[in-house]
Amino acid sequence: MSTMIPDTGNTPQKDNSTATAARPNKGGLEGIVAATTAISKVDGTAGRLIYRGYDIHDLARTCTYEEVAHLLWFGHLPTQKELSDLHTKFVAERNLPDLVVQTIRELPKTAEPMDVLRTAVSAWGAISVSGKPTIEQAIAATARFPLILATFHRLRQGKEPLESRSELGHAANYLYLLTGELPKEEHVRGLNTYLVLLADHGMNASTFTARIVASTESDIASALVAALGALKGPLHGGAPSKVQDMLHEIGSVEKAEAWIREAITHGGRLMGFGHRVYKTTDPRAEELREMARVADPEDFKLSSYVETKALALLDEMKPGRKLYTNVEYYSAALMKAVGLSGDLFTPTFAVSRCAGWTAHILEQVNNNRLIRPEAEYTGPQNESFVPLAERK
User: Fold this and answer.
1) CATH number of the domain that 212 lies in?
2) pLDDT digits (tens, 9 = 90+) for 184-200
3) Can you tell me which residues form the catalytic site (predicted)?
4) Which end of the chain is less enclosed by CB atoms within 10 A, N or C?
């Protein structure tokens, strides 16, 4: 996400003619309440993110991704037995049907991992998913997202996919499947924190898309494929690798100020700054900043300096804009530190967000009404019809 980027937001189906006249349409559904949810709350003014009542800082510092997935799906943090049961269910779903693996094999090695993930989820849905979305399907999808990405990553390197290890948690197993090596504890901790922080984020564009599809009584795989399509866009989730590209272009602390001034002066984008919702510091960025510092102290020096200098220059050159570092800025540094290539950054966002998407899909179908908003027509009216032969 950059300084020029929006983020967004079931729609009560009422006669909104009076409300529309009273409230100007800013576009992008900004300021429009499109659903009620008990899953998460984003308080952009205070800079808070809450999952079912729990502050994101507490969850990120103490919980595994599996605990947070349980919280999002079932509404409460798990007991030890509930967590063990969920782990057992995850392990049972850590496999890909032969047809899905074959589909991945037949895709070009140069394909974007997000495209591979979208295609493989669609293939999995075609042979494995039917009927109303269920919690069992949510667990199955969330367990398989990392397998799809790791399978493609291994194949494009000329290697064969690996079998999951049942003793490993969600984050550790993903790293193992990518590399074939047991990951370092600090890398597991860093990736787990990332997965917790991005597991849900209110009515963002991809979550809204998933809920729209679910509201039509379509299946869970279709809703997830639609969400992936929305997440791929650079105005939503497709920007983390671009932060890394920006830092690489800046190159050093000595060149940072001149590069940033040039970018701001000529309308260039500072990737990883600004957010559609947060009017203060993104709480997820606060947690990721520390994780990035620990994961790679040397790379962190440049990231930290560019952040400090960019915020100062934005305040100087764009006064009143209140632009802050967003989640994608330090996501890039952290994911690079744990060994992920740039084109896996956004797909790994999807690995995390799958728990949130499926929680929202289940919430939608359990109290469903077709999402069907209105559009304010701005075209011509009362045109006189002219028969084809008389048109000039």
Assistant:
1) 1.10.580.10
2) 999 999 999 999 999 99
3) 275, 328
4) C
